[in-house]
Structure formats: C-alpha cells, structure tokens
Amino acid sequence: MPSHLPGIASGRLAPDEYAANFLDIHPPLDHHQAVVEADRCYFCYDAPCVKACPTSIDIPLFIRQIMTDNPIGSAETILSQNILGGMCARVCPTETLCEEACVREEAEGKPVKIGLLQRYATDVLMEEQGEQPFARAPSTGKRVAVVGAGPAGLAAAHRLAMHGHDVVIYDARPKAGGLNEYGIAAYKAPDDFAQKEVDFVLSIGGITVEHGKAIGRDVELSDLRKGYDAVFLGMGLAGVNALGLENEDLAGVADAVDYIAELRQATDLSTLPVGARVVVVGGGMTAIDVAVQSKRLGARDVTVVYRRGQEKMGASGYEQDLAQTDGVVIRHNAKPSRLLTEDGRVAAIEFEETMEDGGRLVGTGVTFTLPADTVFKAIGQTLVPAALNGSAETIALDGGKIRVDDERRTTLPGVWAGGDCAATGEDLTVAAVADGRIAAESIHRALSSVAA
C-alpha cells in the first residue's frame, strides 16, 4: 500500500507496541495445564467431536494420551489424520467445529479446549522429537505433480510420499505454505511457524518443490498430464471478487488478501503503511483478519461492513468478538454503492442499507457514508479457469470451482483437486488438508491398480 497518500502512514506505534500487538493470540498450555484440561474429557463413545472434525482425528484417543503423559503418541494420532495438525490447532475455528460439538459445551457452555490440547501435543513432538513420525515406503517409480504448496497440496504430497510415490509440487510463490504462510493473521502463527511446519512435512523425503511456477503461466495442465502418472490441483483461488463500483482502481482501494500477505512477509511491522480510517467490505475471516491487524498497526478507526445480518457472517462469533474487543466496529445489512474521491484517491465510501425479502437481498434506498483513507476488499476470491484449460479438453466447473467427486477426482482422467479451488463446500484449512489426504489415497489406489 502506498505510504505517500494522505492519511496513510507507517510507524504509527512505538516498537514495543508492535511487538505486544502481534504476540501469539493463544498462549500455549504448559504440561500441567494440558493434563488438567485433558482430564475434563468424557472420552465419549462415538464422540461427536470426531464427527465434527473434517479430518476425523480420534480426539478422545489423543486427549487420553496427553492425560497419560504420552504427548508424542498423542501427536502421532493427530498427524496420522492431519499432517498440518500444528497449524490447524492455531487457525481452525474449533469453536464452530469440534468444540461446538463437545458434550461439555452443551452441558456447561465450556467445552474441552481441544484446539489448545492439539497444539500442545504437536508442539511437543516438533520441538522435542523434531523429526517425522512417518516413514516413506519403498519407491513405486510413479510420479505425481501437485499444483500448489498450500494445505491441500502439502497434505496430498505428504501422503503420496508415504506411499512411495515421487512428488513434484509447483507453486507460484517464493515460499511454500499457501494461505498458512501468506493469508492468515500474523498473531495466529508467530515465530515463523508456517515455514517450520512446511519443513517438517517435507522432511519425509520424495517431495520436490518448484517455486515461482504458476499453472497457466509457467506450466500447463496438458503437459503435466503427459509428464506425470497423476496430477493433483490445489492451487487455491487467484482471482479477487470486485466491488463492482466505478473507480475501483483508485489509490487507497486494496485487496485484503494482498495486504495480509505483505504484512506476513514484513520483517519490520513499523515500516508497513496503514490508513488512519480503514473500511473493510466483507464478512468472512479475511475481513476480520485485515481489520484487526489494521487496528493493531495503529489505524484510528476501523469499520467492517457486511451486506447481510450478523448470523450470516462467515467469520465465527469468537473472531467477531475479538475484532470488537480490539476496537473494530462491525456494521451489518449494508452494501457498497459508491466510492467518493478526492485528488485521485479514495476519500470515503457510500453504503446502501439492505434487507432480506424472501431470502433475496434488496436495497432499501437508505444510504450512509464512511470516511476512509483505505478501503479493503474482502468479499472472496475466485478461480481463474483459463489457467487450467490449456489442453484440448476442458475441466468441468461447479459454481465457479473445480467439480470433484467424493474421491476428489475431476472430470479429466488422471486429475484430482482439493482445497479452495475445488467445489467441496468448505473453505477451511482443515478441510483442505482432508481434501489432500482423500485425493492422495484415491491417487494411490489408482496407481496401484495400474501397477498391478
């Protein structure tokens, strides 16, 4: 974001304030705290928390292993289902997944802290053992191309390597990790944890990462299909939804995902420009993340505006509460209608209040204006299908994403897909990991059948 614009500046805070504002938002449990918390689990038969976990981790088992002072075994239980269990413990909305399903939540309104227990176990393994708990099978001689080094791609690559297949990951960015590295709030994964976890995953061997290689630009799907025994697409979403307003390319109007990526890669947060008056358009996790981080960088006024009611927001109630605790204002039932300019830059944004009429969103004609040095677009990302269709055959889409079946197979033979780019219905890190694992097992079965 340009710092020369009026109202946008860096260095708004003292150095110690930046450090304090971007500390780990969820301090980890120590050994005693973990054992005490684990003792709260009822170890339910047919546990509802397991059903609520997209990766189907055996939660009662890993908690029992913590309680019996076996955190390494606990971590192995977690990682056998979710190789990115460390990051998922930090960023998953457990309050709407496993913890919401916890029987203690229903009975007492205070679930077992499953996410923090998962983090405790995986941290112990990574810090004390520091090596893979899984061995690579003998080489099968089969080669698989994975597009995208995000959660789905890494999970697929790891599981394929476990089965003895050779994997080459093509990723557009200079670092692996996808949204774990570039797209989540910095205070959720400090101390370069995303890269530590990437190194941990890749240490199984048999996986090569080609950085700076984007599909449709540097590599073609048709060539990958010819050169490899199977292809997994997990490149996420490269397009950005537009506000649909005139002058949307004004200085001061920015993409929230790009700004979060810039923040995540900054070595000195005091050099990162931020507006004094920030307006965020959107209602999902990205909207909340960019709003909270703007506030923690020193923005004076930060407002999130969402077009529907609070109950429809993609961000969890916990994340909304966090934003408001930090001083972010959240307004509902309003959609952007006009950008107001001054000297070639954004000066304010006008909204029209909305209402639902039979499930359909309609404008009421009532408007209000919010002054803004910066307007962040956080209304979702889109697939760029042109990057995929460089071959004679085209890949089928469903709702703007890649159509897949239950095994994450696409309509193109030999091609699987998962994560945000696939039409699986969930845009969560843990769901992407599940997609990668499911696809890898399907690929392995397919390659084993060919070999037989």
Low-confidence stretches: none
Radius of gyration: 23 Å
- The end-to-end distance, rounded to whole angstroms, is 56 Å
CATH class annotation of the largest domain: Alpha Beta
In helices, the fraction of residues equals 25-40%
Describe this structure in words.
It is a single chain. The chain has 452 residues and is of the alpha/beta class. The protein has 3 domains: 8-22 and 240-380, 3-Layer(bba) Sandwich (FAD/NAD(P)-binding domain); 39-129, Alpha-helical ferredoxin (Fumarate Reductase Iron-sulfur Protein, Chain B, domain 2, Orthogonal Bundle); 143-237 and 383-451, FAD/NAD(P)-binding domain, CATH 3.50.50. It has 17 helices and 19 strands. It has helices at residues 15-21, 31-38, 48-52, 59-67, 71-81, 85-91, 98-101, 103-108, 114-129, 151-162, 179-182, 193-202, 221-227, 256-265, 285-296, 317-325, 429-451; strands at residues 8-9, 143-147, 166-171, 207-211, 230-233, 239-240, 253-255, 274-275, 277-281, 301-305, 329-331, 334-342, 345-357, 360-371, 374-377, 381-382, 397-398, 401-402, 415-417. The protein has a 5-stranded parallel beta sheet with strand order 4-3-2-5-19, sandwiched between helices. A 5-stranded parallel beta sheet has the order 7-15-9-10-11. Helix 15 links the parallel strand 9 (277-281) and strand 10 (301-305). Helix 6 packs antiparallel against helix 9 (114-129) and helix 15 runs parallel beside helix 16. The radius of gyration is 23 Å and the shape is globular. The N and C termini lie far apart (56 Å). 45% of the residues are buried.
